[in-house]
Inverse folding.
């Protein structure tokens, strides 16, 4: 449960911890679904039958040879995406991810890049490949040729899904290397799957959907979701800039980018419903996509309202070494939450554990002082305390009692359940000095 609370795919779907096989497997499955969806874009969908006809032509009447050539072609598609994953891993090797997101211009740059990609995929501009790339036409009559055929198939689809690839490079480049490779490789698997299936059963080509309004809708939905991600990073970058310069922001200022995120998700839901009803009159697609649209809209509104409510009724005291020392000297238990505006896992834990009863009631009870170390900026004083505790990343929750002082927490964790937090507070209260301070 603790692991599920910590990790969320796209911030919405709880998954097991990404540092274990189960979490990586779930992320890989979700990424494969995303890769499969990329085949529905206008740049890719029309060429699938052509590629399959080419494979079938070279295989002749042999189904086994057709399947073998299809396997090599699928391997080429996967290799292309795996190469992008290796590139992302190379980016992550240059600095500590937590420190990087605290650099305001870095986070802002990621947001602007994703914004440009989102606007681009919605049709504002196009990615144009050099003509020499289109001139490369490997023959698919051998294993080597089919492999290169698959690589070029992925490359030539870049004008449509290159926007997604660019946004992914920015968004996941700071994840653990195994997770990054799993995500990108699985996208390749999802994208390659139709080629493999159709190579084995060429007759299914006749059942493929055609390009048109539906494939354009796929691109538009991708763009709207990218706008939501862009708002998250841009807002975090601006807050990091202002926080680093000592600006005292009102609570509503910290909620503005969450409303931009919510509006983007709401718009995606409305647009999906409107376009689906315009594209088809079949009741099943209408009902199915109306439910998906309602989910997008509901998540967007919930995220904005929930975050606004948390900021408006914030009961956490800002951390400083002096404030913490004073609270401990008075015999209080201190619950210290290390968080940042750019840390989505932190916000998830705050909303699902710390802001809800019974944990909330305990934090507001006698003898307990909840403190927040906001690490949005690299200049925040909480960074030194985080390093002193032997930690480098967030989220992190630490519970201190008066006997141990600020250097020896009785408990700390990067992911936690309500029961664990309550048990840690109770353990800290067993300190004689803390017990004496209770009324």
């Amino acid at each position: 449960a603790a692991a599920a609370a910590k990790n969320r795919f796209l911030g919405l779907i709880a998954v097991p911890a990404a540092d274990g096989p189960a979490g990586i497997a779930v992320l890989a499955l979700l990424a494969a679904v995303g890769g499969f969806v990329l085949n529905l874009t206008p740049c890719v969908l029309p060429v699938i039958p052509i590629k399959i006809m080419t494979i079938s032509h070279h295989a002749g009447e042999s189904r086994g040879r057709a399947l073998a050539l299809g396997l090599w072609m699928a391997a080429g598609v996967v290799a292309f995406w795996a190469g992008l994953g290796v590139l992302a891993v190379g980016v992550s090797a240059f600095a500590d991810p937590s420190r990087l997101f605290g650099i305001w211009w870095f986070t802002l740059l990621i947001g602007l890049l994703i914004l440009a990609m989102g606007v681009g995929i919605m049709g504002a501009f196009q990615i144009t490949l050099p003509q020499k790339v289109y001139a490369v036409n490997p023959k698919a009559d051998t294993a080597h040729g089919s492999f290169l055929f698959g690589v070029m198939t992925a490359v030539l689809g870049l004008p449509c899904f290159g926007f997604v690839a660019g946004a992914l490079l920015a968004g996941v480049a700071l994840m653990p290397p195994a997770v990054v490779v799993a995500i990108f490789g699985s996208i390749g698997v999802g994208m390659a799957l139709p080629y493999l299936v159709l190579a084995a059963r060429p007759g299914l080509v006749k059942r493929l959907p055609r390009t048109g309004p539906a494939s354009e809708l796929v691109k538009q939905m991708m763009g709207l979701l990218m706008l939501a991600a862009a708002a998250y990073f841009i807002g975090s970058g601006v807050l990091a800039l202002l926080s680093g310069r000592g600006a005292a922001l009102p609570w509503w200022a910290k909620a503005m980018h969450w409303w931009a995120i919510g509006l983007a998700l709401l718009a995606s839901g409305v647009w999906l419903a409107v376009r689906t009803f315009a594209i088809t009159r079949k009741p099943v697609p209408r009902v199915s996509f109306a439910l998906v649209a309602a989910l997008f809209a509901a998540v967007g509104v919930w995220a904005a309202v929930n975050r606004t409510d948390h900021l408006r009724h914030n009961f956490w005291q800002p951390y400083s070494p002096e404030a913490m020392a004073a609270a401990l000297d008075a015999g209080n238990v201190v619950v210290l939450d290390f968080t940042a505006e750019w840390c989505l896992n932190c916000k998830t834990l705050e909303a699902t554990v710390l802001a809800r009863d019974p944990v909330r009631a305990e934090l507001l009870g006698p003898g307990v002082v909840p403190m927040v170390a906001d690490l949005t900026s690299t200049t925040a004083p909480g960074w030194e305390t985080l390093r002193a505790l032997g930690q480098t990343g967030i989220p992190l929750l630490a519970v201190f009692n008066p006997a141990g002082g600020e250097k020896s927490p009785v408990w700390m964790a990067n992911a936690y359940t309500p029961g664990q937090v309550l048990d840690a507070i109770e353990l800290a209260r067993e300190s004689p000095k803390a017990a004496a301070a209770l009324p």
User: Anything to note?
Assistant: Residues 213-244 form the longest helix (32 residues). DSSP finds 19 helices and seven strands in the chain. The longest strand covers residues 333-339.
